Amino acid sequence: MKHLNLLPALMLGSTLLPATTADACTNLIAGKGATADGSVMVTYAADSHNLYGMLTHTPAADHPKGAMRKVVEWDTGKPLGEIPQPAHTYNVVGNMNEHQVCIGESTWGGHKELTDTTGQAVIDYGSLIQIALERSRTAREAIDVMTDLVDKYGYASSGESFSIADKNEVWVMEMIGKGAEKGAVWIAVRIPDDAISGHANEPRIRKVNLKDKENVKYAKDLIPFARRRGYFSGKDEDFSFADAFEHHTADTRRGCDGRVWTFFRRYNPEAEQYFAWINADSDEPMPLYIIPDKKVDLRGMQDAMRDLFQGTPYDMTGDVGAGPNHVPYRWRPMSFEVDGKEYTHERAIATQQTGWSFVSQSRDWLPDPVGGILWFGTDDTNTTVYMPFYCSMTEIPAQLQHGDINTFDYNSNFWMNNWVANQAYNRYDLMIPDIRKVQSGLENAFIDSRADRDAGLAALAKQGDMAALTADVNAEGAAIAKTATDAYRSLAEFLMVKFMDGNMKKTDADGKFQYNEYGIPLYPDFPGYDKAYYERIVKETGDHFLVSPRD
What we know:
Layout: H1 6-11, E1 27-30, E2 40-47, E3 57-58, E4 61-62, E5 68-72, E6 79-84, E7 88-89, E8 92-93, E9 96-97, E10 102-109, H2 125-135, H3 139-153, E11 159-165, E12 170-178, E13 181-191, E14 196-199, E15 216-218, H4 222-228, H5 241-245, H6 250-267, H7 275-278, E16 289-290, H8 298-304, E17 335-338, E18 341-344, E19 354-362, H9 368-371, E20 373-378, E21 387-390, H10 413-424, H11 428-448, H12 450-463, H13 466-498, H14 531-541
Antiparallel strand pairs: 1-2, 1-14, 2-19, 3-8, 4-7, 5-6, 8-9, 10-11, 11-12, 12-13, 13-15, 14-16, 17-18, 19-20, 20-21
Helix pairs in contact: 2-3, 10-13, 11-13, 12-13
């Protein structure tokens, strides 16, 4: 995903905020038969070093005949053109619309010569998602809308993978432009209900049954185009979109497919075998989806978005780069050179530069205004708080509205999350327990209250009292955002005080700072460094710090 200029999008009332550079965004997927409650789930992290984390909204609207919609390129703010509006467009909150349709994406680029050179393309990948959400009631309809748009108006972006879900099913669609030719070539595969899938900046659709019209869709000229351009020469049944339109290197396998692999291994031990593909020890690709051996629940999907390769060969907490506080992060750039050899740090799902992320739930047993929930969080997925917002929301909480990446704001959810996370990046193992306590407390309360909230809102929907339902949803959303933001502001202040100057002040079981009988703060602890760190110092410096014994 690439960096976006947000202001033009906001002027158009847009909802989608994709962002960043290659090797950036992660989508995880679970079909309704693979989840504990029967919901269809998709996750998405919009990762960018220059993206402000915010939630936006496009209201439902009726449009007169002849009305036009401006299309602005998401990465640059450049006006691309106009397209006709339909008679009606739907309410969109974040990446989910009022019919529980949810769309995420990840950029992979592909052959550079397939980027549009006609100069006439009107639809870029971000607008493609946004417009589809405005116009689609199902995932299949979204695929039709998206492919029709690029056919009619041209495709102005590079290679993309899309996760497209509704309350019944979920699809992965992959698309790339045609260079000097108008439009795009694409393929879409339905993920089986009992399966989990994912994509992370690598195309993942390989050999499929092209005759399975119910579960596979593709552009009519897909294979002829690939043959004509010299990307494919085999039999139709052996066609692989992923291999025809992208070069897969050891680096991209590790940094991109590795994120999907670590999700798979959480839910089926047999997925460990795909590490050979990830680590470039085998050229047998990892499959598009697997069948989990246990059900996926909401908490599990949230935890998967916080994955830092714990317990894998790519675990980042044990090498010298982790420092004495076992920090599972590495600053950019990821690659570096030593003695003429190139090396790379790991690229985990959780990463410091995330602007915002979500875990979506689309639930067929509830009315649409209640069934769709976007569990939305700002900044790093590892330390964020996922807040539940229903797809019928029409007012964005103040703490999640537009802000500035260069202007600190105590009332911004994004900035309070950053304040917490950036303190932890320096003293991770000491601070993360305090963060987890607040984070899990908030999220558990939000999760535990959903059953009652769902029932109450469903009752209003059944009564047809949509005004009351919308007012209730908006009020709760505002309260949740304020609660989460206030809690992290207090947490950030607490961390600053507790760990000031490299010390660790004493607290009781409730996290309260301790004082002596005269009201004087107790003397702090000195946590220092771990044994391995001291050993590294001696190894590198020899006797430089050696204390000579006295006579």
